[in-house]
Write a structure and sequence with these properties.
The chain has 427 residues and is an alpha/beta fold. 36% of the residues lie in helices and 17% in strands. Helix 4 packs parallel to helix 10. The chain is globular, with a radius of gyration of 22 Å. The chain starts with a helix and ends in a 5-residue tail after the last helix. The model has no long low-confidence stretch (mean pLDDT 95).
């Protein structure tokens, strides 16, 4: 089947993400989405195992979200948020504040996860400036971490193993250390803080799962340790819940499993159910109050043009409706049980290093994957959309995925990995 006209005309003019354009295989042409399925222009249908980069938690094209988007589109798709507010944004801020733990009550909207983290970093630095605490401008992040692709967020990603190592030496240097997972790393972490806390404003971490760093899991005890250490050294704690928020790890927010309250939290991805671009940086009361002053320079000088877009906020409110009215967390628990059972046979395959599951996240870690694009092509031939990266094959399906669809995904992983090994192919 020949490619559509728009594909042939437009492909020479786009620049794809995370792709070496000289060698990357041609991208698939999608024409429609519904539930957990993507329809291609050639008529093929793929079961989506990654929920549109972890966003479409309710499945694609959910009728409730679509209805609210259509209603908002008919009345006010956008209005500037400078000196003006609107119902969808204020209603959403109120609901998020009620859902989040503690006094996380001041919502600053942006339109992408990376920018939400940039704003969190900016808040943490200016928090010190406004309080007259000179010299405390560094961030403390962790190896294996990922917080975005913009310039400031690249500086707090893993500087050696992450995708941004080419920029080492160009960006402002930040502190990146090992997570305090065990006795040795905890001792090293504490020793580092003893020496450097005076120059650090905040600790930032992805709670429970370091996503793009390789779906690396850690326990709630690690988060409790970070909260305790932050309090003892007078540091802010920022939790990047852009991936983990809204049910992905089994609780509405990952921090709830540790029973802690961060000083700042960042949210995006599933915030609108994968329908519109929207992100939020939410601060506790004491952080916000540090910006209240008769001095206009103490204000947070940031304002994305499309912040608090009414259409996106309407979608987010509709998504929260679904979390309130449907058993989403029970569905996540069922997915977790199914992933544990169905991915476990992969552990016996040659080349498999680990199999791990948390909430609606299933991971098969390999010793290595030499050609992720080739492996992705194999999955497409099985009728599934799975994007291996680094050395992992993973699933982050919609919470509404049907049991037979999930079984097709896990069966495809086991079959492709077993077949590749039997044929002597290098992963």
């Amino acid at each position: 089947m020949s490619a559509p006209d728009w594909y042939e005309a437009g492909l020479p003019h786009i620049w794809l993400p995370y792709s070496q354009m000289k060698t990357a295989p041609a991208p698939l042409a999608a024409s429609a989405t519904h539930g957990s399925r993507i329809t291609l222009t050639d008529g093929r249908e793929l079961i989506d195992g990654v929920a549109a980069w972890w966003t479409a938690c309710h499945g694609y094209n959910h009728p409730h979200i679509r209805a609210h988007a259509e209603a908002q589109l008919a009345t006010m798709p956008h209005v500037m948020f400078g000196g003006m507010v609107h119902e969808p944004a204020l209603r959403l801020a109120s609901r998020l504040s009620a859902m989040l733990p503690g006094d996380l009550e001041r919502v600053f909207y942006t339109d992408s996860g990376s920018v939400a983290v940039e704003v969190a970093m900016k808040m943490a630095i200016q928090y010190r400036i406004n309080r007259g605490e000179s010299g405390r401008v560094k961030m403390l992040a962790f190896r294996g971490g990922y917080h975005g692709d913009t310039l400031a967020t690249m500086a707090i990603c893993d500087p050696e193993e992450g995708m941004h190592h080419l920029f080492a030496g160009v960006m402002p240097a930040q502190h990146v250390v090992d997570l305090p997972r065990d006795e040795a790393s905890t001792a090293a972490f504490e020793a580092f803080l003893t020496t450097h806390a005076h120059e650090i404003t905040a600790i930032i971490v992805e709670p429970l799962v370091q996503g793009a760093g390789g779906m690396l899991f850690h326990s709630p005890a690690v988060l409790r340790k970070l909260r305790e250490s932050a309090d003892r050294h007078g540091l802010l704690l920022i939790l990047d819940e852009i991936f983990t928020g809204f049910g992905r790890t089994g609780s509405m927010f990952a921090c709830q499993q540790a029973g802690i309250v961060p000083d700042i939290i960042t949210l995006s991805k599933a915030l609108t159910g994968g329908t519109m671009a929207l992100a939020a940086t939410v601060a506790r009361r004491h952080v916000y109050e540090a910006f209240l002053s008769d001095n206009p320079e103490h204000a947070l000088m940031h304002g994305p043009t499309f912040m608090a877009n009414p259409l996106a906020c309407a979608c987010a409110n509709a998504s929260l409706d679904l979390f309130e009215s449907t058993p989403r967390l029970e569905q996540v628990a069922a997915i977790e049980n199914a992933l544990r059972e169905q991915l476990e046979p992969c552990r016996a395959l040659p080349g498999v290093k680990d199999v791990r599951v948390m909430g609606a996240i299933g991971v098969v870690e390999m010793d290595k994957i030499n050609d992720p694009a080739a492996l992705r092509t194999r999955f497409i031939s099985e009728g599934v959309w799975i994007r291996p990266f680094r050395n992992i094959v993973y699933l982050t399906p919609a919470f509404t995925i049907q049991p037979d669809e999930l079984r097709s995904l896990t069966r495809a992983i086991e079959h492709v990995l077993a077949t590749d090994n039997a044929n002597g192919n290098e992963r």
